[in-house]
Amino acid sequence: MTRIRTYFALCVLALAVPLIAGCGDDESSDVDPQTVLDETFDNDERVVSGDLSLSLGGSAEGEQGGSFEASLSGPFQGDPDDPAAIPQLDWSGSLTAEGAGQSVSFEGGITVTEDNAFVEYGSDAYEVGAETFGQFKQLAEQASAQQSEAEGLSFTEAFTQGCEQSLEAQGGDPAACQIDFQAWLGDLSNEGEEEVEGADTVHVSGSLDVETMLQDLVQLGAAVPQASAPGVPSEEQVQQIADAISEASFDLYSGVDDRVLRGIDFNLALDPSAIPDASEAGIESVDADFSLRLAGVNEEQEISAPSEAQPIDELLGQFGIDPNELGGLGGLGGGTTIPGAGSGSGGGGGGAPSDADADAYLDCIAEAQTPDEINACASEL
Questions:
Q1: What is the reported pTM?
Q2: Labelling 360: which of 40, 62, 222, 240 has CA 20 to 30 A away?
Q3: What is the SS3 assignment for the chain?
Q4: What angle is formed at CA 170 by the lines to CA 167 and CA 171, rounded to 5 degrees?
């Protein structure tokens, strides 16, 4: 269990930092590194399209050791005139992991076009269906449109606003959303200009204040009522993890001309001897690394649907899922529509739901645990 918690903590640390992206005006690679980060953090420029490449890996050495590698890559294309629109994308991913005498290997992908969505599993593609996708798109864009006031805000401002709205909706304490991300970073150095994905960037390196970051994340997790039960680390556990981190470094690449994030690398090394349960479990060392690259920023990306896609019912059947039990989710494979959601073909009931109804429906779906609870959410529309 401790090993799983350690992996989880490392993954949270690795995934949190790359959310920072930005813009600025200073073209000099000699600019103070803190200024580069300030302009990157406080960016209000929307990145609506690009080609994403992301990888995450980790390993634990010792008797109970193991390793994993994950990747996600592909283009995405949003609507520059409508921040609420669901972006088109064509992403493929893979995951390999081994440990405790077991191994896992997975390859798949997801494609979203203007009017449909597809899932790729193995060598086959499966179609969600234009009618079902249209219903979900309508609901999601209605909910997103209510947050359109975040347009023009920096990352930190948009994160805080969205976080507060989410916590308030769940009955949590929105004060936990007041996170100073820049306090996580220190030992900054400007490493000069480097070309990343065809763009000239300023390379800033530094270290991570693990203890501050963990405390902020734990506080945020504890602010959610459902998460305030067992599972949220104690202050003592946070301190143990912080003491066990022997390396926490990052390299950030921000555009010289626009301060838009083009890449970030993040590395963690942990000495489990500072965590008694971990060392007793036979783990001698833990390493994790994260890498993100963004190419073709705000350049037009071409997204096309896969050919010869099969109905998604066939994929669900492979996992023992009865599509008819998903009626409340738009009836994947069952022909059922979301009540009140309407559809491009004229089916699906009584017109578009109100913004409040759409919000209530999406909140209900997020909290549902069983097919019956999912189906019951239709009453919100």
A1: 0.71
A2: 222
A3: CHHHHHHHHHHHHHHHHHHCCCCCCCCCCCCCHHHHHHHHHCCCCCCCEEEEEEEEEEEEEECCCEEEEEEEEEEEECCCCCCCCCCEEEEEEEEEEEECCEEEEEEEEEEECCCCEEEEECCEEEECCHHHHHHHHHHHHHHHHCCHHHCCCCHHHHHHHHHHHHHHHCCCCHHHHCCCHHHHEEEEEEEEEEEECCEEEEEEEEEECHHHHHHHHHHHHHCCHHHCCCCCCCHHHHHHHHHHEEEEEEEEEEECCCCCEEEEEEEEEECHHHCHHHHHCCEEEEEEEEEEEEECCCCCCCCCCCCCCEEHHHHHHHCCCCHHHHHHHCCCCCCCCCCCCCCCCCCCCCCCCCHHHHHHHHHHHHHCCCHHHHHHHHHHC
A4: 85
The pLDDT averaged over each successive group of 10 residues in the chain (381 residues) is 39 40 47 91 87 96 88 95 88 92 91 94 90 85 61 68 81 85 89 94 94 87 64 76 91 94 94 73 87 96 93 83 58 43 41 59 65 66 60
Token look-up 């449109």 returns 145
Best CA proximity match to 379, nearest among 347, 339, 351, 352:
339
Contacts 24+ apart (CB under 8 A), 147-154: 147/84, 148/83, 148/84, 150/83, 151/46, 151/83, 152/44, 153/44, 154/22, 154/41, 154/42, 154/43, 154/44
